[in-house]
Amino acid sequence: MPTFSVQAFCPVCVVAVGAGLELSHYLGIDDTVTGLWIGALLVGLSAWTLEWLKKKKINFRGEALTVYAGYYLLTIIPLYFVGLMGQAYHTFWGVDKLLLGIIFGSVVFYFGGMWHFKLKKNNNNKVYFPFQKVAVPVGFLLLLSIAFYFLTRS
């Protein structure tokens, strides 16, 4: 699984995102939208961890799979056991809303990051605009959030 550098994340950012997720739940934002951001956070944390391992010259067979699977399992299993996932009435398109959001958010954020690197490569390794590295994947995530907001409205 290819990785990309996510140097924009810091521990304070991670705590802020976690607090934002709790606030979104409190405010009644649909779990598919919340899941999008959880999925993006998991991709970012995984890439961040892999980059850290690389800098520390720690490598082992299957490290990317281990890191990604570890973060996803350490997130999804507790959500299931506290009752935030796995409820029959809490689905969209036949899939748990939070899980669906996590899947879509992960995929969109990952490919948004990859698209940034493709754009940069096509422009002689220069960004087209300041903060492109953040704006491209987060922009896709915002658009997807708006789409799911309207798709899941009752």
Please give a structural write-up.
A two-stranded antiparallel ribbon has the order 1-2. It has one domain. By secondary structure, it is mainly α. Helix 4 runs antiparallel to helix 5. It is 69% helix and 3% strand.
Summarize the structure.
The protein is mainly α and 154 residues long. The protein is 69% helix and 3% strand. The protein is globular and about 50 Å long.
List the helices and strands and how they pair.
Layout: H1 11-26, H2 31-55, H3 63-81, E1 91-92, E2 95-96, H4 97-122, H5 132-151
Antiparallel strand pairs: 1-2
Helix pairs in contact: 1-2, 2-3, 2-4, 2-5, 4-5
Q: Using only CA atoms, what is the Rg? A: 16 Å
The share of residues in extended strands comes to under 5%
Number of strands: 2
Question: Termini separation (Å)?
Answer: 38 Å
> Which structural class matches the secondary elements?
mainly alpha
Q: Domains counted in the coordinates: how many?
A: 1
Shape: globular
Mean pLDDT: 84
Strand order of the largest sheet: 1-2
